[in-house]
Amino acid sequence: MSTLLPLLALLLVGWMPAVRGDELGVVGPTWEIAEPDLLAVIESRLKRMAQTGELARKQREHRNRVVSAVEKPRPVAGLRTTVTPRRFFLDPTWVLDRDIRTADGALLFARGQRVNPLDHVALRERLVLFDGRDRRQVTLARQMLQRGGAKPILVAGEPLRLMRSWQRRVFYDQGGSLTRRLGIRQVPAVVSQDGKRLRIDEIRP
């Protein structure tokens, strides 16, 4: 049974003032209340779009947007090319807001516990964050990669084009989550491990 009629009844009961229970008769023409089949409406709309070519156009537009978002992701906001070199250190210790368990349910770390990831894993490669639109920064990042022990992370530019050129994986700081967490304001920046801390160097390209 359609859910429209009970819903209308409830709404009307809530809005109508108190009246006498007299028979008032038919005031005007009446029609049966019908609820259209939503799937039928959608199907009809899609058929019309296919006939007019609108559906194919929208599919092309969607594909182009997806390709563009992959080829040229949105640059991380709030960053600039390094003007004044800066070095600072970051303690990555944080307080867990939930229990961390293994796949079989064994408790590794309890909620409220202070954990430094560097107590358990090492940052084996330096992280090189750079703007792929700046030729100087790209050159500097490439030199660091050639010396070994570095992982390239773009904050702007075209990662797929760079991967094809360098024949290696290039990462992207989507949404700027990494730069915000590390407090980076200038690029290029190099992140490395210094004992139980992270060392961040914002350097000139």
Features:
single chain, 205 residues, alpha/beta, Glutaredoxin, 6-stranded mixed β-sheet, two-stranded parallel ribbon, 35% helix, extended, disordered N terminus
Q: How does this structure look, described?
A:
The chain has 6 helices and 12 strands. It has 205 residues and is an alpha/beta fold. Among the domains are: 38-71; 80-91 and 121-202, 3-Layer(aba) Sandwich (Glutaredoxin). The chain starts with a helix and ends with a strand. It has a 6-stranded mixed sheet with strand order 2-12-11-7-8-9, with helices on one face. The protein is extended and about 65 Å long. Helix content is 35%, strand content 22%. It has helices at 4-15, 38-52, 54-71, 135-147, 159-166, 177-182; strands at residues 80-81, 86-90, 94-95, 100-101, 107-109, 114-115, 126-131, 150-156, 171-172, 186-187, 189-194, 197-202. InterPro entries: TraW.
Write the layout of secondary structure elements.
Layout (H helix, E strand, L loop, with lengths): L3 H12 L22 H15 L1 H18 L8 E2 L4 E5 L3 E2 L4 E2 L5 E3 L4 E2 L10 E6 L3 H13 L2 E7 L2 H8 L4 E2 L4 H6 L3 E2 L1 E6 L2 E6 L3
Parallel strand pairs: 1-10, 7-8, 8-9
Antiparallel strand pairs: 2-12, 3-6, 4-5, 7-11, 11-12
Organism: Candidatus Accumulibacter contiguus
Protein name: Type-F conjugative transfer system protein TraW
InterPro entries: TraW (IPR014114)
How would you summarize this macromolecular structure in one to three sentences?
This protein has 205 residues and is an alpha/beta fold. Helices cover 35% and strands 22% of the residues. β8, α5 and β9 form a beta-alpha-beta unit.
